[in-house]
Amino acid sequence: VSIVQELVDMQLKRHQQSQQHLQKDVFEDWLQTETELTQERGLWGPVEGSLLDKWMLDMTEAGPCRMRKKMVKNDLFYLHYPYRPDVEGGENRALKYKVATSFDSKEYYKHCRPDSLVEHDTFSPDVISITSEDWPQEGDSAEEREIGFQGLRTRLQANRSVSGDQDEDSESLDPALDASEQEGAARKDESPDNQSVLRLLEKGEKITHMFRCARVQGLDTCEGLLLFGKEHFYVVDGFTLLKTREIRDIDSLPANMHDPIIPNSSPRSKHQKRMCSKFSYDDIREVHKRRYLLQPIALEVFSADGRNYLLVFPRKVRNKVYTRFLSAATAITDSAQESLAGQRRGANVESGASLLSNLIGETSVTQRWLRGEISNFQYLMHLNTLAGRSYNDLMQYPVFPWVLADYDSEELDLNDSATFRDFSKPMGAQTSDRLDQFKKRYREWDDPHGETPPYHYGTFYSSAMIVASYLVRMEPFTQQFLRLQGGHFDLADRMFHSVKDAWLSASKHNMADVKELIPEFFYLPEFLLNSNRFDLGCKQNGVQLDNIVLPPWAKGDPREFIRVHRMALESDYVSAHLHEWIDLIFGYKQQGQPAIEAVNVFHHLFYEGNVDIYSIDDPLKKNATIGFINNFGQIPKQLFKKPHPCKKLTNRTSVVDPGPIMPGLSYCHDKLFFHNLDNLKPSLHPLKELKGPVGQIIQHEKTVLAVEQNKGLIGPLYNRYVAWGFADYSIRMGPYETERCNFVWED
């Protein structure tokens, strides 16, 4: 009787947990539906948006050259910055400076508080553990746990032995059940966690491999599972695999039962939404090996639609996952023109323009820049990508140079060398006074413990705080800044308020400030405006912080600042001296004796290979080391062991080539076809026989593709076309080679 009672109680509890999981999923789906119905121009939404609507930068790289320009509505703004009448006036006025607020929150509180169609309850079910019958036995490599989905069936006895003689390191279990069979089995065994995962899959999907991973976005990390299916892979937040071979919801686990992938990772915010992302293998553009906390444990996956994820894995698992991606994703880009790195996979960035490399098409991105095929902005983005810098990790954010030293003139003179910074010296050596002080620090350094070698700079030119302080006026970076600051804005006199003051601080006045710039200074004017109307406080001189104070040559217009700043980056002077800065950041002056001679030595914990956090046994020392890396930044991967070649400029009609302002249009004049008309010859064979006027021509790799009017080629492979303009108002799609119509969408 007791056994039957125990079984009934267990089944009842699992049924309750299953219902809670289902209710939670339905609740989230309804909230999404409600948002779509009530949004601007939605079925039940307003025709026009409100002036109090707030926007945030989307993480999708929708622009050229990995630019992020897309702004999306920020529905959580007034949850993050609610109106606080208790901090206005009276005895609690001092609290105002400890709470981040917006001047628009009060107005929103009075007039625009919407009543949700549902109550926003909080679901926190205590999920029952699920144990597999068919998982392999756990061996010495306990960090690596891959399973097939037939191993998701539950059992009543947790210690039941595994049947069969399976290899404990087996990568796949064949044959795999499809999603409908898996879900049916899970429902039969009443497995709440299994049902939650299976509901997220495509119908008929077959899962062959599963890995623990942690998704990194800014300062946030969310642990979950990476699933490899038949045609898609999935990143599912909030679930993990225990050492006991159980799949569990992380929120339901006691702290002592879960060993996080990332040491000392912060808990998930209550407003941080769990995500389940699905990617088709055909849409995987590139996969790059990455570091995290200076450890080789991460991969960055880039999709053709602009999404990219930085995934961290347990030790010794990354390379196996990388191999799995390469075998599953057959459409990975291997074209220099389309690659995020600006060169083909396997090409050496430091290789010269030899005859053999040109014949086999292995031209490096450096050679492309030297020939004028890509702009300075493009080249710097390619180098950042090759060096492991990532938008997804504020500790390894892409780094760009300060370009100008003139922030006082009404008009910039790009012919005058005094207009520009000294690219041959790091920011700490821009003035002779600071240079002498940093040299003195290095000479007189004395560590009584002998653990820290001498260095010039104890702070770094790129860190999470530097990035967040630059972008503090724009969400989601405001939230990142507040996390670093303990929930409130910094003192007004220390906030980023003026481009000129930031330059003087980094180049002259502040011994603890040697920061460089970020890519947004050359393409994104929105971060210079306080569109969210944050209360950033007043400086000691009484100036209220608001929009960024721009130099006179920007005419008070953020767009003009971006235009002129980008033009300066693409100027002849910068093109002729940019290689000197590259030597400092990515090149041979980054480390060793050349770095000492260039006054370019940083604290040793900034460099890869100087610390292994997994080998530190002392928890206090381990936490301090991780905190140091998190707060102060990480040196990029060294790309060049020899001096970077100088770009030889050709004759131009003007000092500033307007082409680079539009990415991809930076070509030397002697490369343009109309300068060499005598060399043009008609093709012996037609490239493409069209049935009508030409609508689009694209050069793809070494071929030229063309389609008729009312047709367009679909990138990045350009092997499919989309057509419109038919009498039935349909849209049609098919392969480029055969022009056969495979899909028809009718109105």
Automatic annotation (TrEMBL):
Segments forming domain BEACH: 354-647
Region (Disordered): 130-195
Residue span, BEACH-type PH domain: 202-326
Residue ranges of the TM segments: none
UniProtKB keywords: Repeat, WD repeat
Short name of one Pfam family: Beach
PROSITE patterns registered for this protein in UniProt: BEACH, PH_BEACH
Organism domain of life: Eukaryota
Keyword presence, tRNA-binding: no
Protein name, per record: Putative lysosomal trafficking regulator lyst
The species this protein was found in: Amblyomma triste (Neotropical tick)
